[in-house]
Amino acid sequence: MQTTDYARWFRGSTPYISAHRDRTFVVLLTGEALQHSNLTHIVHDLALLHVLGVRLVLVHGARPQIEQQLGKSEYHNARRITDSAAMNIIAGVNGTIRTQLEALFSTGLPNTPLHNVEVPVISGNFVTAQPIGILDGVDHLFTGEVRKVEKDRIENTLTTGGLLLQSPIGYSPSGQAFNLIAEDLAAELAVQIDADKLIVFDDFTLTTQNGERISSFTPTGLEQRIDHYPDHKQVRLRALAHAVRGGVNKSHLVSFEQDGALLVELFTAEGIGTQILEQQAKAVRPANLADVSGIVEVIRPLEENGSLVRRERDRLEQEIDHFLVAELDGVVVGCCAVYSYGEQAELACVAVHENYRKQSGMNIGANLLAEAEKSAASQHAHMLFVLTTQARDWFLEQGFSDASTDVLPLQKQSLYNWQRNSVVMVKPLKKPNT
């Protein structure tokens, strides 16, 4: 039976569905995204995230819509100078956009598979603002910045199943409305409510000089490229970096022009946009009992095709201290085990989830091997050996060489399964810290 691409994709997305459930994402729909023909599909995908248990805070922009109403505006450092007359127009534009989005989440869903799903959209005065004031001698008037976020009220809204919709307007304690920069608002919201992600929709992708997509950046790396972009895009890129610097796990830049881009970015290993994250600890770590289910999912297909010897769950639990796991986005995507035999150590149960074996640039198997070698060397082993039936070529590429069963420890020789006729391969180990 041949597995369809859809079935393979759906199975591959399952760990991400679990990982994203009950997480809080702040999403910025820029003004340009609101004008694009793909907006209805984006709303559909956001509704799908809501159904899957993602807690959503949706911030919208309004820059092009406001420019259409105001005509030419005065800017300072990419901030619009907002006088009282402009503030009245801006409030009206934001009110119109908010109404349109609420309608899309309601009347826009009947012709989709989510037509019976209710998505309660909640708006309100969740943000207290203050005036930016005078910068470089320029009075910004009614252009403001976030002073305080009503974290508890937002939490209550999300906990009760609401999708929170926030316009880029905030109010002072006296009731004065201020025009906020949507990008700064989204980033500050993400930081103050301890969101797991900030997602920004825009019409460009970060690429190399050869036009190849850059899948990930650190905030520092991103800031080194910011000057290459127009002012309003610089604001968005700085917001992505600011959120991560403020404690958000990841921020994502996703194209609003490509249908389904949000789903590909969130539910596949390679994604389709650019994610911003601080340099993380190594993706390979010692396993614990909570990882057993993930290990089972990784190794079971290889046990079924005979590549690995079957291990029952209770055995995995008993031997969990021998295992290392590779983790991606909180999901176990690979594993291996190291068993010490004095000056020798066995590398066993090397496995990478089938959806990640051919992902370019990840090198999950090689990363597992590197950590396994360190683990074996720290236990005073001078040689690592492995028994394999189907991965000989890969181990040769990793520096192993063929050997006879005579090189195995006596205890292992007595357990050798002649029926499986596994190839014995060995690799000398470097001493720790050399």
What is this structure's SSE topology?
Layout lengths: L4 H16 L3 E6 L1 H5 L3 H13 L3 E6 L2 H8 L4 E2 L2 E2 L3 H23 L14 E2 L4 E5 L2 E2 L2 E2 L4 E6 L1 H9 L3 E4 L2 E3 L5 E3 L2 H11 L4 E6 L13 E2 L1 H5 L7 H15 L4 E6 L5 H7 L6 E3 L7 E3 L5 H13 L8 H6 L4 E6 L2 E11 L2 E9 L11 H15 L4 E6 L3 H6 L3 E3 L6 H6 L7 E6 L6
Parallel strand pairs: 1-2, 1-13, 2-10, 5-10, 13-15, 14-16, 20-21
Antiparallel strand pairs: 3-4, 6-9, 7-8, 11-12, 15-16, 17-18, 18-19, 19-20, 21-23, 22-23
Helix pairs in contact: 4-5, 7-9
Describe, in plain words, how this protein is organized in 3D.
The protein has 434 residues and is an alpha/beta fold. It has two domains: 5-276, Acetylglutamate kinase-like (Carbamate kinase); 284-428, Aminopeptidase (3-Layer(aba) Sandwich), CATH 3.40.630.30. It is 36% helix and 24% strand. The strands form six sheets. It has an eight-stranded mixed sheet, sandwiched between helices. A seven-stranded mixed sheet has the order 17-18-19-20-21-23-22. A two-stranded antiparallel sheet has the order 3-4. Strand 11 (169-171) and strand 12 (177-179) form a beta hairpin. The two termini are 50 Å apart.
